[in-house]
Amino acid sequence: MSDASQQFERMALDDFEELLADKPRNERWELIGGRVVRMMVGARWEHGRIVQNIASHLHQGFRAKGSSCQTFAETFYMKSRPLDAAMLPDVLVVCGAIESGATSVDNPTVVIEVLSPGTEARDRFEKWLIYQQLPALQHYVLVARDRPHMEVYDRVDGSWSGFRLIEGLDATLEMSAIQASLPLSEAYWGVFEA
User: Fold this and answer.
1) Fewer CB within 10 A of the terminal residue: the chain, N end or C end?
2) CB–CB of 76/56 below 8 Å?
3) What is the pLDDT of residues 129-158, one digit of tens each?
């Protein structure tokens, strides 16, 4: 085994779920394609505000329309046994019923990650490799923390052939799969002046 492969702890989802019982409260653990990633809890306030703004705006829109879609922010796992994945996206949108008592889903329609220097490479590459294999996922959104900027990957006719850049506080992110609009002025409210 090479030195590079020995530096990462690898396991199947079932083993990871058993390990979670011993997770310290001040840590956030994810399983990305069989690789265990341990991080400290906590982020810059801008990150938290952007996550709250996005989740709140989408939730209010779904509620007003009577949509079956629901938002979850940073605390609800996306798990996939075949992909050995258990990840905590910044914002997760699930449309349809969720089993009572569930602690995870495997069928998100939208996943949104707010980029930070410590997580950007994982969000762009490792997590993206997993997310694009989820059959229900239609939009993957990467959100900059330091400027009003979003990168959007769209599944079009079954393949990930769509890519959009959404920039500026006057721009709006349209997500057709969930019939939702997200003005960047709302996503970045309280972080940047309009």
Assistant:
1) N
2) no
3) 999 999 999 999 999 999 999 999 999 999
Angle (CA) 23 98 112, round 5°: 65
Q: What is the DSSP string of 38-70?
A: EEES---HHHHHHHHHHHHHHHHHHHHHT-SEE
Contacts 24+ apart (CB under 8 A), 166-170: 169/194
**Distance between CA 74 and CA 102 in Å, rounded?**
15
Amino acid at position 99, single letter: E
As a whole number of angstroms, the longest Cα–Cα distance in the chain is: 55
Q: Which two tokens stand for residue 191?
A: 């972080």
How far is it, in rounded angstroms, from Cα 53 to Cα 185?
10
Asked if 144 contacts 150 with a C-beta cutoff of 8 angstroms, the reply is: yes
Query: pTM for the full model?
Result: 0.91
Coil, strand or helix at 79: strand
For 13, other C-beta atoms within 10 Å of its C-beta total 18
Q: Write b or e for each residue in 150-165: b if 16 or more Cβ atoms lie within 10 A of its Cβ, otherwise e.
A: bbbbbbeeeeeeeeee
Work out the burial of residue 143: count CB atoms within 10 Å of its CB; fewer than 13 is exposed, 13-18 middle, 19 or more buried.
buried
Check: CB of residue 169 under 8 Å from CB of residue 148.
yes
